[in-house]
Amino acid sequence: MQFHQKLFTGILLLLIGMVLGALLMIYRGGFQPDDRAEVKVTEITRSSGSSESGMEMPEVPFRNVAKDLTPSVVYIESSVSMDDRDMPDDDYHDFDDNFWDRFMDRRAQSIGSGVILSEEGYIITNNHVVGEDRNGIRVHLTDKRYFEARVVGRDPSTDIAVLKIDADDIKPAVLGDSEELQVGDWVMAIGNPFQLQSTVTAGIVSALGRDVDIIRDQMPIENFIQTDAAINQGNSGGALVNTHGELIGINTAIATESGTYQGYGFAVPINMAFKIAKDIIEYGSVKRGMLGVSIVSLSQDRAEELGMDAIEGVEIQDVASGGSADNAGIEAGDVVLKVGEHEVNEPNQLQARVAMLSPGEEVTITLVRNGETIEKALELIDRDDDIIASWQDEQAQPYNEMFIEPEDDIEVREFEIGVEVAKVEEDDDSRLIVLQVVAGSPADMAGLRTEHKILEVDDEPVQTLDQIEEALAIGMSNDDELRILIENTDGEEEELTVPY
Question: Which of 110, 113, 118, 128 is catalytic?
Fold first, then answer.
């Protein structure tokens, strides 16, 4: 065969391969054009209930709520790579398995729910339903129509995302006011668990303002509604509605040891979810203001140290230089009682209140300093500001170099009382230093703080992490509380009592 014939044949085979490959990718959903929805203002239906009109809305029978709200809840399918470690290998995620999987990226079908926000086709759902590596997102309506969806935007910090479909004759949900919710109120969850489309369950609001540490993001914001209405895989992104037929939450997660419903479900309050969705629809991303502080829960011992009459508020541990709080004169050691008119008693409550505000907005912070209640007015800085970014980089450092040097020999372990401890070897000195305390944990309530040195557990001297673990196990099996002797940051020994 002549050279030019060989060259022509090679080029022809290459072109054929490229065409076949492109067709296969389209068939498998691996190729999707970057077809994001147009960003614009859209009309949202909001309730004219008691908070706006001063009139109490009548409750509606469950059957009427289900009939009215179910058409507003959609079923979402998306294709995700099997290499995604968050994708479970179970009966509800359909993995392809054929000859081409040996050569191409294998993908699975992920399922979830969403709620129609407007007649223009905007849909609110969870970020983890949409994900970063999702292709071929398809939305199914209750009337059996389906549409390819486009991603408008995502917010990993709150696990909220917005999709858009081009559809006519769709029914938006009526948005309620999640601030009106109280523990004990009846609610209904509507979604698509286990591919059982348009499933309705009922329960009550069992708690408010929950922080359950499920959002994996640098700046997680958790302020969940807790409910015992049954929620399972596939309910994510679906509707939590009240007995007035109003959307008051976006179902997001469950607390479970079995992988299925065990009595505790969590939903993002609609006031927060709508603020996030509104920003995404109007601007393409979330506009979020920042105080520029790091915060911790306030324990009884710490409240007494600060001379406070009650255990209330959230303590500020650190302030970003040049940030909103710093510019307003807020200092480390201040205890925040209110953001605007809203009381805050846990870090996640403060984060949620600030998350409802936008950069440039002014807000009044009520705080306690040296036993005196004072107010500070400030203007929120954008979370994308260079000041916040550089400060967060500093906060993200794994260890505080003021008490642990990079060259130190370090061993780290977490303990179930809610504390992370490092064993630090430096020259001939061995120290057990508290690196991190989980907010609201027994260790936090006892007053354990970062940089404390652990000396004894239940009167037993400890010099290794194994000794701490053994002493904790013995102490917790014999008593209702533990005694931990620590050396505080002033170099003084102090005995703390850890309940559990």
Answer: 128
